[in-house]
Amino acid sequence: MPRILVFDSGIGGLSVAACIRQRLPSVELVYVADNAGFPYGDQPEPTVIGRCRTLIAAALQAFPCDLIVVACNTASTVVLPELRAMTRIPVVGVVPAVKPAAACSLNRRIGVLATPATVRRPYLDGLIREFASDCRVERIGHPSLVHWIEGAVTGKAISQPALSDALQPFRDSGVDTVVLGCTHYPLIRPQLEACLPDVRFWVDSGDAIARRSESLLEQQGALVSSSPGAGPPVRAVLFSGPVPSGLTAYMTNMGLAPAEVCGPWPGAQGITATGSV
Ligand code: DGL
Asked: Spelled out in words, what is the top-level CATH class assigned to the domain 3-94+206-268?
C-alpha cells in the first residue's frame, strides 16, 4: 500500500490530509506535527529548516513513505530545497493559491489570509507579481489565528466577533476572493465564511496538493493495483510535543481515523530548538 508522510507544525496539515484521503483512498497516511516548535511563523528560518529536516528524517526511518507533503505554507516557503537535497523521495510543498484566486476574482480584488511570516516572505510577492499583477491584493498576516484553531481542536470555541474584527481589512477593500494561505484556515472555513458573507470565492491549496500527490505516485507506479486497506486511513500520528486533547475524535470526524497517536514521540526526543539532535 502506498504511503504519504504529511508534515505540519501543528494540526493545520490535517486539512490537506483530508483532501489527499478523499482523492486517494487507497493510500495510507502518516501525519507528523512539530507542535513543540509551533508556530513556525515565530521561528527564524534556519530553525524551521533544521526542525523539519530532523523530524521528517526520523519519521521516514520509522515509517518509510513514497511521498512527502509539507502541508505548511510557512515551512514550504523556506524548506523545500533542503528537503529535496536530503532525500530522493519526492517532496510536495504548499504555497498560497494566488494563481487560482486570480483566475476566479471578478472584481480583481483578492484577500490573502496567512501567517505573519508567510505574508512578509518575498515568495508571496513573487506569486502576486507573477499571477495577480492586475489585482489589488490585501494581505492579512494574523498572529493569533493559528493558536485559536489549535485551541478549537481541544474544544475551545473561537470568538466570532474577534474573528470578524481580524478580517475587517478584507471588508474594507471589498475583496470578492480570499486565499486561505495557511493550512490551518480551511479547518474553520464555515466560521470565516460567516464573517465575510460578500466573499464569492474561497481558495485553498488542498485539492491541488492531492492532485499533485496522485500524479507523483502514478509516476512511481505506486498506485497500480492498490485498493483501500482494511485498517484506519492514518497509520500513525506523531507529535513532537504532547498530543492535543480531543485529537482522535477530531480526526475521526474528518474521516482521518488514526491507528496510532504518539506524543511526545520518542523519535523527536532530543531535538533542540534549532532542530539538531
Ligand atoms: N499550517 C501552517 C501554515 O500553513 C502553520 C503556520 C505556523 O506554524 O506558523 O503556514
From this structure: alpha beta
